[in-house]
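A student in our group prepared the protein record below, which I am reviewing. Thanks in advance; the entry in question is below.
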Amino acid sequence: MNLRNVVKSIVLTCLTVLTFNSTFANKEEKKEKFNVGEMIMHHIGDAHEWQIMGGHENSVSIYLPVILMDGGLKIFNSKSLYHGKVMPAIDEAGKEIHYIADETNGYAMFHEKIYKLNANGELDFHHGHPTNAKPLDLSITKNTMSLLIGATLLILVMLTVAKYYKKNGSVAPKGLAKFIEPLIVFVRDEVALANIGEHKYKRFTPFLLTIFFFILINNILGLIPVFPGGANLTGNIAVTLVLAVASLFATVFSGNKNYWKHIFATPGVPVPLLIIMIPIEIVGIFTKPFALMVRLFANMTAGHIIILALISIIFINENWTWGFLSVPMALFISVLEILVAFLQAYLFAMLTSLFISAAVEEHHH
């Protein structure tokens, strides 16, 4: 039997097993339907705990501190919100809703949002959403911890590389410097110098390097959410918003006279047409960083969702043999996500350099 027939036999056997087991599983009575959407949103969303392994009551987690401003500063462990008293509630449509109440501290958590309990120690619901007051939540959440870890790694990496060159001078790099130096040179030469120009690129190179490595490190750390214990920092719209605002400020506050003249008095444009052009140019100032924000958020989140959806095929069909199909596909997307992690960091830095270049470009006669 040649190799072709062997492969064909293996494929046919796997398909037969999948079909048989799926048919058999459909005849069994399911106790509880697997909620794919809830599982995916739980993994890519923020939380007040850092789940290491397991799920629900059997999970092994690090419970993060809850910090609330509610008539004063209140600090307590989030474990009481995850393992408090399970409370039932009925909304106006007759739908039964369950939430966890921390009666000791007087708060309850519903979909990772903290609400203040009413006088009866309960939450009131309207159209499936709590109507109770929400305190100002300053808690250290999973994404906050991931941000601190990513920033710490960035500082340690850069200090280590800087210390190496300070000690050894301009020599062939070794160790960590051997990996980081090509990336630094790439951002300096192919992003900053190529787009901003040799006269002004040095001023913005540290900013572009910070953006590039911060996004890259957190993108790589963000690949872990397909497993328990990870955080999806760059898949959080608030984080990408702050990065986009930093890009906006770097562009706006670096703008020279020529840049603002092209926005409010574009050369060669008739005065009546400026009435239309000026609002368009002003809107363009904000749409550029907005595109940066959405691109990074959407690309990183989409990859995690696809991987988790592929893994979910096994649990939807309640059949481990579907793993022969879903696991290789999820592995392929995971490898592709590594490329996307580098690509998104490069695109964010490159487009930011292009925006800065337009702001600092001198008038050409």
